[in-house]
Design a protein that fits this description.
single chain; alpha+beta; six-stranded mixed beta barrel; 10 strands; elongated
Length: 443
């Protein structure tokens, strides 16, 4: 009708040209990556390998630490092995330089007068001949109290452990290590079979489960040993302790190689060892502060030291992996700068048609985010997948199973987020700062 204003819908071509939805930006990013496939693959592979490295290396570092901690437990859980030494200072009217020889009375005194010590056992060792109906050997035999079996983590695969009755009656029974059993009874059952040990008839009551043991003391790993009641060994074939020097005399009967103690708890470990040192110092007339008079192998201290080593190693692995990831981020920034240079005329055309600096900046930030997030997700899947694959494979004893660490995954994702922002910001700002005339002049 004349004179009536009709509503009109304005068609703005700039809206079509400048307001690019995320889906369109994603499509253009894929097209740009496809145009330079090799360069894009290498850039994305840098991020992928960086994420994979963080998860895998940190997992291996944690796995090494757990594996070594478990192996240390095979020597004993929170125990200390005490060896007699030589005094380095005079004490109580006695000169320095005396040999300290521990004996069965020392173990009994610790058991009676050290309330912070949970269990104790003297130990004697001697390498003697063993003869079975199947084979013969010459291996070390250890004479111990029954409680020794618990805190030294001795577990039988067949048969039983020694009991207090075996010790009280000096029963001639023996427990074989895994390797000792294979040698003396190759492919045959050992339980209940007789073994002549230094000419005395002993009966096999147990075979130890094989230990993954990376440390020992005295005569070797437990797999290679034989274990008998302390009283039986002291009666039948005690070690021949000899002194040193021209006037040396044989050690008195009851002398032991060492004494093994277990504190009541890890929290009381230091105080318990102080009690033990004081008791032995009083009995052998040496200064309790004389560390040379009594040498102590502290497994708790060793475990803490090992934990610190593998903690630092894991941090080093993580730092190397994160550095690899950061280098991947530099690669993303580089490809985005190249993209800005190659698409200068496109930027100029869009700006000439009305695109704002914000539109240009958003486009390149989204492209950078797509590259890093896609490659980061692939790296996350790759890292977790490789860890799971390695855990499923049979590995040599010295290779640990990697642990999938939530901390490593979070750290890699946080780093990936920082890379996404930093790698895309500078190229986006550079593209947004170009003027249309500057862009359209470019050949």
């Amino acid at each position: 009708m004349p004179g009536t204003a009709l509503p009109t819908t304005a068609y703005d071509p700039l809206q079509v040209q400048t307001a690019m939805p995320i889906l369109e930006i994603f499509r253009q990013t894929l097209a740009a990556l496809w145009e330079s496939k090799l360069r894009s693959f290498l850039t994305m592979f840098g991020i992928l390998w960086g994420i994979t490295s963080v998860i895998l290396l940190v997992g291996l570092g944690i796995g090494f630490g757990i594996d070594q901690h478990e192996r240390l437990k095979t020597i004993g859980t929170d125990i200390a092995i005490c060896f007699g030494g030589k005094t380095a200072m005079p004490s109580g009217g006695y000169a320095s330089g005396r040999n300290i020889q521990l004996n069965i009375g020392d173990a009994e005194a610790i058991q009676q007068f050290a309330p912070l010590v949970k269990t104790v056992s003297p130990e004697i060792r001697r390498t003697v001949s063993e003869v079975s109906q199947r084979n013969a050997s010459s291996r070390a035999v250890r004479g111990v109290w029954p409680q020794y079996q618990n805190f030294r983590s001795l577990k039988v695969e067949e048969g039983r452990l020694m009991t207090d009755a075996d010790e009280d009656t000096s029963n001639r029974v023996v427990i074989l290590g895994a390797e000792s059993s294979r040698q003396l009874f190759p492919g045959k059952p050992a339980i209940g079979q007789p073994v002549m040990i230094e000419g005395y008839p002993y009966t096999v009551i147990g075979v130890l489960a094989k230990k993954q043991q990376n440390g020992s003391y005295g005569s070797g790993p437990d797999n290679t040993q034989l274990f008998v009641p302390f009283s039986a060994m002291l009666r039948d074939f005690p070690p021949d302790f000899k002194g040193t020097g021209p006037d040396a005399q044989p050690a008195p009967v009851g002398t032991v190689n060492n004494i093994v103690v277990q504190p009541v708890s890890a929290a009381q470990h230091v105080a318990a060892l102080r009690e033990v040192r004081q008791i032995l110092a009083d009995r052998h007339h040496f200064d309790p502060n004389d560390l040379d008079a009594l040498w102590v192998w502290d497994t708790l201290e060793g475990a803490q030291f090992t934990d610190r080593i593998f903690y630092v190693m894991t941090l080093f692995f993580a730092a190397v992996a994160l550095l690899t990831l950061l280098l991947g981020g530099i690669g993303v920034m580089n490809i985005m700068l190249v993209a800005v240079s190659e698409r200068t005329r496109e930027i100029g055309v869009r700006k000439a048609l009305g695109a704002t600096a914000r539109d240009i900046r958003r486009q390149f930030l989204v492209e950078s985010a797509i590259i890093t997030l896609v490659s980061g997700a692939a790296g996350l899947v790759s890292g977790v997948g490789i860890c799971l694959l390695i855990r499923a494979l049979p590995l040599p004893d010295f290779v640990p199973h990697p642990v999938i660490s939530a901390v490593a995954i979070i750290a890699s994702l946080v780093t990936l987020g920082l890379i996404t922002v930093s790698a895309g910001t500078y190229p986006a700002l550079r593209a947004a700062g170009m003027t249309p005339i500057e862009c359209l002049r470019t050949d």
